[in-house]
Design goal:
Layout lengths: L1 H10 L1 H38 L5 E4 L7 H9 L3 E7 L6 E5 L8 E8 L16 E4 L1 H7 L6 E10 L2 E14 L9 E5 H12 L21 E6 L4 H11 L4 E3 L1 H43 L1 H9 L4 H37 L15 H27 L3 H7 L1
Parallel strand pairs: 4-8, 5-7
Antiparallel strand pairs: 1-9, 1-10, 2-9, 3-4, 3-6, 5-8, 6-7
Helix pairs in contact: 1-2, 1-9, 2-7, 2-9, 6-7, 7-10, 8-11, 9-10
Length: about 400
Amino acid sequence: MLRLALADLWHERVLFLCSVLGCAAVLAPLIVLFGLREGVVAGLRGELLQDPRAREVVSVVNRTLEPALFERLAADPRIAFVVARTRALSATIVLENPARTASGLRVELLPTAARDPLLPGMEGLGADGLVLSVTALERLGLGVGESVLASVPRSREGQREVLSLPMRVAGVAPLSAATRDAAFATLPVLLLVEDFLDGAVGPDARPAGPEAALTRPFAGFRLHAARLEDVPALDRELRLSGIEVASRAETVAGLLRLDRNLALLFLALAGAGGAGYLVSLGVGLWAQVERKRRDLALLSLLGVKRRGLLMLPVIQAAAVAPVGALRALAVAAAVAGVLNRAFAGTVAGERPVCLLTGARGAAATGIALAGAVVASMLAGLRAAGVAPAEGLAEG
């Protein structure tokens, strides 16, 4: 039956070519549209993912946040990283290069911990380690691994006291993490600075162990969502609980809406175009069966079983679909190349604006093949229902 079906297609190759072109005409625009959706959304998503602050949610108002809150945040599977922070007024420190005189630089003191998304690769910082911003490092004239003196002055009972901490430069923060003069330190260092400014410890105090931070309240926090999709929900939930936060929730939500809207547009166009083509293919195959009823009846008289007659239109449809899909992919690839050159560096940065891959091409071919087989079933049932007597009657 396979040989007979293919021979019939070759005999009516003009009709076969028309069916292939019809399939390609429907599939090519859909493939381009799908490639545009993937390229634009993937480009925007990629730009956000490259920025570590895209998944960041930061509390912006000093409050008294109990340890139980941080336990809940750390246990939330939507949160990949969370670190507490002290009051903004106490999160500053003066850094000096020991090799220079009068080299004091006041910088913002920021909390960090293991697996901080803002500081990739910075593990095992230690209580004496600081990660400096590029600007701070250049102004101090220091390099990674060198010593730096950190100090915090205060006035108490008319006396000026200074907390001095010998530290080392453990690394350089990326520009995406800090564009101003800043230093990242472990939480015990920030707690020591806050306690010293509050008068709770003396100038000779040193950072406590990390376990001390588990039993005291904090003024705020910085967390990073595990996925972009989690940012809007976390932002909303924290605001509803009375915690004012800053994040890129609106930007992320806009990207997700764009993704959904493009998906709905693609499904609508694909559904309308695909349904129209499948109906036309099914009607064409039905017409062929009606036109060849006498031939099918003779085949039945010659001993071809109903199952074989059923498979004739199915095999022919299965031959049309992949050839049409390959032609559609070739057209779509050419169009994608033109679009990528025309919009290079504009919509999706350095990424292609129309993204086509072999996997998506295989998926389009498979969907076209499955749809063609389904569309041919009615014609196949009609072919199987041709009675052998019809061949004798018309003969």
